[in-house]
Amino acid sequence: MKRFRDNETFSNVVQPSREEVLGNSLKLKGNWRKEFFKNENPLVLELGCGKGEYSVNLAEAYPEVNFLGIDIKGARFWRGAKIALEKGLDNVGFLRTQIELVDHIFEENEVDEIWITFPDPQIKYKRTKHRLTNQDFLQKYRKILKPNGVVHLKTDSEFMHGYTLGLLHGLEEEIEYAHHDVYGSQGAPEAVTNIKTFYEQQYLEIGKKITYIRFKFR
């Protein structure tokens, strides 16, 4: 409860109601750079940001880019929001909402890149609709991304990696990079290999492979 109260006071946290989002009354829609970040730098989303580790680390590594971590569980990203404020990082924020609402929160062509980091693979068939790289979600991402906007998927799930690759091939999207063991490959982007979350480090210590895909929509 303390974390929820803290989030209400944090200047880098936005918590719109579902009614506000679906009613198209969110004033930040189409104005995230100007109104929230106070600049015109590129806008990058992290979907399912958890504790916000990746968003905060990306913001530190790329101060000329705006990062927005999105998760429905505010008690989780509280930590990232708090750390960002303590470090004085003004290029990272957090949004508490359902990811399926992203096309109601951002205007068409408003977003430069999307990161999906260690999402729940939703392996059971009845959970397919919640899988963050299913066809419905991909259409939402296509809508809000700028032309040539990039999507990154980093996961420890071979299932999620294979499912997404198969879907992208079937849709004939442009896969720029894909590897089932990103730390054992060559040419992986620094933003993928230089940043490790707490749980990712634990996976690596027990020998679990981390997979990565970078793709664009045609």
SSE inventory with pairings:
Layout: H1 2-9, E1 13-14, H2 18-22, H3 32-37, E2 43-47, H4 53-61, E3 66-71, H5 74-87, E4 92-96, H6 102-105, E5 111-117, H7 135-144, E6 145-155, H8 158-171, E7 174-179, H9 190-193, H10 198-205, E8 211-216
Parallel strand pairs: 1-4, 2-3, 2-5, 3-4, 5-6
Antiparallel strand pairs: 6-8, 7-8
If you had to describe this structure to a student in words, what would you say it looks like?
38% of the residues lie in helices and 22% in strands. The protein has a single domain, classed as Vaccinia Virus protein VP39 (Rossmann fold). It has an 8-stranded mixed sheet, sandwiched between helices. Helix 1 packs across helix 5 (74-87). With 218 residues, the protein is an alpha/beta fold.
Q: Keywords, please?
A:
single chain, alpha/beta, Rossmann fold, eight-stranded mixed beta sheet, 10 helices, globular
Strand order of the largest sheet: 1-4-3-2-5-6-8-7
Total beta strand runs: 8
Number of domains: 1
Order of helices and strands: HEHHEHEHEHEHEHEHHE
CATH A-level architecture = 3-Layer(aba) Sandwich
Instruction: Please state the overall shape, judged from the principal axes of the Cα atoms.
Output: globular
The parts where pLDDT drops under 50 for at least 5 residues are: none
Question: Please, what is the oligomeric state?
Answer: single chain
Structure, briefly:
This protein is α/β, with parallel strands linked by helices. The protein is 38% helix and 22% strand. It has one domain: Rossmann fold (3-Layer(aba) Sandwich), CATH 3.40.50.150.
